[in-house]
Protein 1
Amino acid sequence: MNTITLELPSLLQERIELIAQQQGISVNDFLVKSADKMSQIEILNQIKRQAAQRNTLDGFEKVMNAVPDVEPENPDDRIDF
């Protein structure tokens, strides 16, 4: 693992600490999970953009239909749209 030092506004740091505490996880775990979810959303958006550029959603729907429709093991990993 790598270490990153961040300078955050006090209010943002307090919000992050509060949310992490409410979820019963460390601030580090909260930030790692948040970054991971952001990257998953960006990948999905990239796939959608590429499908739109090809002027067809057939390929996108084919890929998405290949993904199993199961609930994630960890409820925190769920992405609702």
Protein 2
Amino acid sequence: MQLSVIIVNFNNDRVLRGCLQSLPPALEGLDVEVILSDNGSSDGSLQWTREKFPEIQILENGDNIGFAEANNRALAIAHGRYILLLNPDTIVRPESFRTMIELLDRETSAGAVGCKLVETNGDRQISARSYPTLTTYLYHFLGLEDRFPRSPRFGRFHMSYWEGDDARPVDWVCGASLMIRRELLDSVGGIDPYFFLTYDEVDWCHRIQDAGHEIWYTPDTEITHLVGQSDPQSNPNPDSKIKYMTVERNSRVHYFIRHHGRFYATLVEALHIASNAALLLKARVFGTNQSTETMLERRLFLKLYWRTAMRIPRAGLSALLRRFGRDANYAILSNPYLEGQEPMPAQVSPQSPSK
């Protein structure tokens, strides 16, 4: 089989329909399977998919086990020589899959490839980036990235100095559309399930490169990405926002510990705390032109760290009890999406093979 397309769904009915309806022209002529890995959706999206696309294989995970683990369960049953991770909030072009397959066939050093992502109006999204570092975050918070976008130094993280108009190796590409060679799963493994929602593709690309393969970007095909319209990013409720920010923070900490060490990760989080506090203080004293939503997110970020600080005494006691053989499991960094949830085994719905 040439290709396995994996789509993770969690109550994304409003965008999933457009994604699936755009697939048939892109799949025509390919030996391909489509796997929908569902995290316990209750919005009718599975019923609609079964009715409209009976050839799609549905993997029912039962609960919201996260983006990474949902992909891993689908990777375990995928048969394609190439595997494409595709967000449900995307609209593909008829040539999208063939273009990425052709690049991997041509560039033997490439382990993975991503393509150009665009807004609904055709504006380019930044889908190829350099790895995040303490320095790139500092440039971002100081406003140097926005002030000098053409600078290879200050615009390094988002590669804003580059128009994205030529195919080339990059550090990492956006996981909204990421195609890899299946053979890499044997040497690199799947996605780290700790990355519940974010930083998963950054870490995966890093590991693929560490294994001696390149990450490529191609502008020769476009995929429309409805960024921010899938749950939970689109939920305006402050409690939902802080839940999302919590797992984003946890993923960032995990990424920097893995690739740079604990001290470096601590410095990154200290920079985030200090920068958000300083920008809020500046806005209070001098005013700001930033959006109300941005300022709300800064306040929620500081609230998140206040809650984290309140967890430290109990987490310390838990670690002490474990040292003496007592049953205690309380962590400083918790995942609000998984608290009180027991993992459920995945169930594959019987479907006819994709054509």
Protein 3
Amino acid sequence: MSADTTPTAYPRVRIDVRRDGASLQIGDSAFSLASSAPPSHQTAHLSVTTSRTVDPTAPKEIRSADVRHLAGDGSRALQQLLQTARAERERLDKTLAAARAEMVAKKARYESWKQGIFLKHLRKATYRQLEHEAIEATAVAVSAYETRMRAVIVAAIHVDPSLSPSYAHLCDAFRTMAKSERVWDTLAVARTNCIAERTSASQTIDRRDVKFSLSSSALMYCRLEVPHLQNANGGDLYLYPGFVLYEVSRDAFAIIDIRDVQLSADVCRFLERDSPPSDAEVVGTTWAKVNKDGSPDRRFRDNRQIPILKYAELTVTSSSGIHERYMLSNYADAIGFASAFRAYRALFRAIPAG
């Protein structure tokens, strides 16, 4: 994972990942990526098992804290740099568009004379002038393009060699897990009234399909592809070697020290009313409408039997406010990834107290 040599008009961003954590350097300014304590007014993680509401069946939303509560000094410094770079890119895009339009017009006029039989011979001075203007406009457009391409933030990530093999294993385990036939973001969970609803499901889960992939955030130019967990109701998560990037938008993101991140995978027995994924294990069956003893409620016509599937529930949390929960159809691969993450995280020294 060597430094990037892409030319840029901005201070280079360097991230050093060592066993004692990650540090961020922007130009000559250095920042620690260790997470700060959460604000005093921030509630605990939005756990469906500990949250209390007046109505016990009311849905409990599963999402992370506001990004403003997650951002530390490193995040804010990088955010300011990115905002400056984006404003400059928008200005340069307009300049480049105008230069390209001028180039196309000048070249078109020159080519029309060049293809002619008489004008370029009868009016040689004008023809040469048109040729000169076409060449000059092309040079201006090329220069504008090169300037625009340098208006990017280049991030060079340097990882301690003792960490690289374990991180590579983590990425391999993620690549395998990402092949799960179905991946859902859990948006909210609500307790069901089993008697009134005639169901054996203890919870109703609001979920939405998302994608897991190896990619890189568009915020910074970086050749490193990392585990990317898409989010349906908040920010996407990128698991970089020494930190987690929580990206809501180009203007709202936070960098969380990996030592402050916990990731676990547990069993989720789910009554699947949709088409069952082929890579999920069937652990039982029930009925769409059931009696207290689990037998089918004969009062309902077309009361169909539905499978109970063994899914994985993947949870990502941090003391600074990250709280995301996913459901995956391939339980074994999710367990393998969670194990690889814990093994990699264990290589880092604990965050110093205070």
Protein 4
Amino acid sequence: MRTGRLPGLLAPLALVLAFGPVAAAQEGPPPIDCGPGDGREQLTTQGFAFEFDAPMTGGNTAASDADTTGTVWANRTATFPFENNFAPHVGATLKATLSWANNPHDFDLYVRDDESGGIIAGSENFNQTDPTGEELTVDVAHCQDISILVRNWVGGPAVPLKLNVAVTPSEQLLACAEGDPAPGCAGKTAGQAPDFVPDNRARLFFGGSRPGMVAAALRYAYATGGAGEPPMHQALVSQRPTAGVPNSQTRLVHGNYDFGPDSPFFPYFETRLAAPVTVSGPIHVLAWLSSRTMVPTDKLWFDLHIDGALVKRVEVTNIGAGPKPVLVTFDGYDATEAMESVTVGITSPRAYDAPPTDASYAEWTLFYDSVQYQSRVTFPFPQCLAGTAAACPPA
């Protein structure tokens, strides 16, 4: 164990590592169809490779300064959430490595089972004396939801990191049932292994300034944030964020409705499609939010606008004091018309609550455009968005 760590942070991790990986009990063969999911990216037998700046929030506070809630730890950790899609294999062995060119820096690498929340593998070399980086190996199952975590222990924010995940599939194969509707089982007889079905969903991230918008004209009177107070009207971008320091936007819930994209007070992220396309399935949004003043019953609304018209609104509550991922699913709307643009915004409801709380004086912060706060939108249609090479299917 590395010296100098806080016992309050180490104890839960040590217990999980001592008892080994979290094993999911199953009766019969594992499922082939992973279900609707939550919009996360799929980890396949092709593995995953990514280069990015070390995660770091503003300031140079040491990770050991974290309180018992682990707030600083969370802020200094890049999170990569995956749904394992190893079809036709029952499971696989992951070998994850984290490397960088220059020392002295110190980073840690973990794999978390997201259903239980437990760490199932970790690498915590003391890199200032062991410059070989971090490496771990762990067995995981098909359809298991995991996150790969890269924690900055004592490293600079500009250190380029390389994360590589190699996947070695197990020998045991999944088996289709007779007439199985699961993906990859069409035309298969009972007992045959399914074919691999790629994940064709489109994925965009909360990114930079919307082209053509004037930042100064759109700044809200109470807005604060990094990167020179970024404007509230932003773009959805195809490139996964690589920056180690996040952008943020803080504003008051001012006790009135925000009326949508025509209002300069409505914070939103938008993309235009390369060609019109219809939706056949849910649109998932993952956003990182915090509030120092909102109580659990105070609420925000996530709004989905298609071609400028509001088609769905989802209420969000329980926004915590530290940056926290909020998952929103837009489903059950009429999507028969072809769409040309998609806008995801956050609306302040009319918020005159009875004492002891008055949400009209609350504030909330959105974090985005960094490796530790990968706010994103997952679309059910194939890669046919603006800025991508593939063409849209016929509307």
